[in-house]
Design a protein that fits this description.
The complex is a heterodimer of chains A (about 375) and B (about 325). With about 375 residues, chain A is α/β, with parallel strands linked by helices. Chain A has 2 domains: about 325 residues, Thiamin diphosphate (ThDP)-binding fold, Pyr/PP domains (Rossmann fold); about 45 residues, no CATH class. Helix content of chain A is about 45%, strand content about 10%. In chain A, the strands form 2 sheets. Chain A has a 5-stranded parallel beta sheet with strand order 1-2-3-7-6, with helices on both faces. Chain A has a two-stranded antiparallel ribbon with strand order 4-5. In chain A, strand 4 and strand 5 form a beta hairpin. In chain B, the strands form 3 sheets. A 7-stranded mixed beta sheet of chain B has the order 3-2-4-5-7-6-12, with helices on both faces. Chain B is globular. Classes of the chains: A alpha/beta (about 375), B alpha/beta (about 325). Chains A and B meet through helix 6, helix 7 and helix 8 of A and helix 3, helix 4 and helix 5 of B.
Chain lengths: ~375, ~325
């Protein structure tokens, strides 16, 4: 049996609300008030995020980005979770969380600099309550627990609107990292208001989830003494319902909670990856039938809640976003060499002042100041193909 | 700044560090202490003794036994506006937390272009000389000096222990703070009313004319004893204590070398690719024509720290320092 197909067929504990055919049913433990406006807005979010994600892929293929990390197939897992966060809540992403960024009000264009090699994300993580992307697998999960410990120390828990919690995002591969284990130990030891949101997309680059665990990932939560829930990660309503429940548990002081969003990475790990070397087309095809956007579209259409005009409007809006995204990418200017020395410390040290001054003086010595920057662009493009 | 300790009192380095923690916590309720055994036990070296009683378990946190967890959660607490101080029990145990220190602690400010400050102090008892078992006597400071975004400090006496730790806690940058464990019980005069402001600059410990000697942390006492012994033999050593290992304040050292023409650098860390290497290179770059001899290093061997019955052979000693000075001056 193929790894991913077996996983589809063996999910007795899966929390789901919206079937692949677009049939809605409530879950007794995770009630959600499902209005047409809510479903439409979730549909729109997923379409827009998918559209700029595809544009990111294309921009990499055209040499405009050094790398892109596709989220294709994980739109529901991210929009469902992201929409459960309130403005005061904090989010600690990994590096595939373009949908969470969207929900935190980070403009998609702010994600481009990381992959074009210009910056590490230009949004203000303290203001947006969305941390910078974290490339080292699992580091951010511990940082999130610490932040949540701070929320608890600040006494911002409770059942009023001002209560806060933290959600952190990681993949199935990250669950093998010591940091994720330590994070759950610390989270439990300090009753931190943190939701551990694992997007199990079945593959850690080429390693199947079987290489990470012998039990379902959500079942590991029991070992830390915290609730573990497996939700259909391709079902945006179920992801929203479970995430809202979990965040409320944390806000009222009953955290932490672990959620395993059971989903599938429809594209490569990154644009440098070649999934055809390690997985079969059958597996991808089987998951395609579970597409997170199509089932919402089916629900809206079969219940007469939206017509072709609505779907066309959303698509047009998505195309406009993609065009703006592309234009912004191509027009991004490389930073000046001062950026190298900027904000290494809260205040620049004398040593760095000296190095910066010496380097700028060296650059001034060139007749044609473009020479050195031309070399660096060639280097970045070579790196992008590696 | 006000202190709980009487002015100009004589205290051990351990007590001075404890007083610095206590004073900083009393002054700013965002200052937290966390680590293994720092609460009821008061730390394995008792540096946090009594803090739990005075500040409560929310500010003095006994943590699970996991160094990456301690450092990684401190990062999040700092983002939340706290000023965590973490204790690593022994030098050789910092490595499970090394990933968080290198990948997050050092880079959060740079990555976010200053949106996050990282006012985090990582205290590490370091160095040998206490007859301990493996992993309890290491000098890993060079690893941290190599990482941009971190500040690295090492104190050598009670007064500096107090003022440098106060200053480390006050900074908005992450600091790896090394405490020479075999000096914990040595007493010194601490003027708690003095300003801590200049405690991170290289300081002149003794003036001399024949040879400049630079050191820090546990070896400072050895170097000062060597300088006293040298004087009886008619040789005059000028001695500096670095205090801040990164960034390094080498200007006074270079100035001194221009006068003496000779430099000996003393550290118990292994010699290769170390702070002593850095000092030798920088002084050579900046004062090449003043040097009358190569820079000589007295350091640990390029081996793992040996079994403790051999540590006297491994550590810089008074005789090793004097022999190095002889070689340098007689070159």
């Amino acid at each position: 049996m193929i790894a991913g197909l077996r996983a589809i067929n063996a999910s007795p504990n899966l929390v789901s609300m919206l079937s692949p055919e677009g049939v809605l049913s409530q879950h007794p433990d995770f009630p959600l008030e499902v209005t047409t406006d809510l479903v439409k807005s979730l549909y729109r979010d997923m379409c827009l995020v998918r559209r700029f994600d595809r544009e990111g892929n294309a921009l990499q293929r055209q040499g405009q980005l050094g790398l892109w990390v596709p989220l294709l197939g994980q739109e529901a897992a991210q929009i469902g979770a992201g929409r459960a966060l309130r403005s005061a809540d904090m989010a600690f992403p990994s590096y595939r969380e373009h949908g969470i960024a969207w929900c935190r009000g980070v403009d998609p264009t702010e994600l481009l600099g990381i992959f074009r090699g210009i910056d590490f994300g230009t949004w203000n993580p303290a203001e947006k309550k969305f941390n910078n992307y974290c490339i080292v697998i699992g580091n951010q999960v511990l940082n999130a627990v610490g932040y949540a410990m701070g929320q608890k120390l600040d006494g911002v828990l409770g059942d009023d609107d001002a209560a806060e919690a933290t959600m952190t995002f990681f993949g199935d591969g990250a669950t093998s990292q010591g940091d994720v284990h330590e994070a759950m130990v610390f989270g439990a030891a300090f009753n931190a208001p943190v939701v551990f949101y694992c997007q199990n997309n079945q593959w850690a680059i080429s390693e199947p989830v079987e290489k990470q665990t012998r039990v379902p990932l959500f079942a590991r939560a029991a070992a830390y003494g915290i609730p573990g829930i497996r939700v259909d990660g391709n079902d945006v309503l179920a992801c929203l319902a479970v995430s809202e429940w979990a965040m409320n548990e944390c806000r009222t002081g009953n955290g932490p909670v672990m959620i395993e969003a059971f989903t599938y990475r429809m594209d490569a790990h990154t644009t440098s990856d070649d999934p055809s070397r390690y997985r079969l087309a059958d597996e991808t095809q089987a998951w395609k039938l579970l597409d997170p956007i199509e089932r919402v579209k089916a629900y809206l259409a079969r219940n007469g809640l939206a017509d072709a005009t609505y779907f066309d409007e959303v698509q047009a809006e998505a195309d406009e976003l993609a065009a703006r995204f592309r234009k912004h990418c191509i027009e991004l200017e490389s930073p000046g060499p001062e950026r190298i020395f900027s904000k290494v410390y809260a205040e620049q040290t004398q040593q760095l002042r000296d190095q910066e001054a010496a380097y700028l003086e060296y650059l001034d010595g060139f007749v044609d100041p473009e020479i050195s920057s031309t070399e660096s662009v060639a280097g970045a493009q070579a790196g992008a193909r590696s | 700044m006000t202190s709980t300790a009487p002015n100009n009192s004589t205290m051990t380095l351990a007590k001075a560090l404890n007083t610095a923690l206590r004073d900083s916590m009393a002054e700013d309720n965002k200052v937290l202490m966390m680590g293994e055994d720092v609460g009821k036990l008061g730390g394995v070296f008792r540096i946090t003794d009594g803090l739990l009683k005075d500040f409560g378990e929310h500010r003095v946190m006994d943590t699970p036994l996991a160094e990456s967890g301690i450092v990684g959660t401190a990062v999040g607490l700092a983002m939340r506006g706290y000023r965590p101080i973490v204790e690593i029990q022994f030098d050789g145990f910092v490595f499970p937390g090394f990933d968080q220190i290198v990948s997050q602690v050092a880079k959060v400010t740079y990555r976010s272009q200053g949106a996050w400050k990282m006012p985090l102090v990582i205290r590490i008892p370091f160095g040998g000389g206490i007859g301990a078992v493996e992993h309890h006597s290491e000098s890993p400071e060079s690893f941290f000096c190599h990482i941009a975004g971190l500040r690295v400090m090492a104190c050598s006496n009670a007064s500096d222990g107090y003022h440098m730790l106060r200053q480390a806690i006050a900074l908005d940058d992450p600091v790896v703070f090394f405490e020479p464990k075999r000096r914990y019980w040595e007493k010194g005069l601490v003027d708690v009313t003095a300003t801590s402001e200049h405690s991170l600059r290289t300081v002149l410990r003794r003036t001399g004319t024949d040879c400049t000697v630079v050191s820090y942390g546990p070896s400072m006492a050895v170097v000062l004893a060597a300088a006293a012994a040298a004087e009886t033999e008619g040789r005059s050593l000028e001695v500096f204590d670095l205090r801040s290992l990164s960034p390094l304040d080498l200007d006074p050292v270079v100035e001194s070398v221009r006068k003496t023409g000779h430099l000996v650098v003393v550290s118990e860390a292994p010699r290769e690719a170390s702070i002593t290497s850095e000092i030798a290179a920088r002084v050579t770059e900046e004062a090449f024509y003043s040097l009358q001899a190569p820079v000589i290093r007295v350091a640990g061997f390029d081996t793992p720290y040996p079994p403790s019955r051999l540590e006297a052979d491994y550590l810089p000693s008074l005789d090793k320092v004097l022999e190095a000075v002889d070689r340098c001056v007689g070159f």
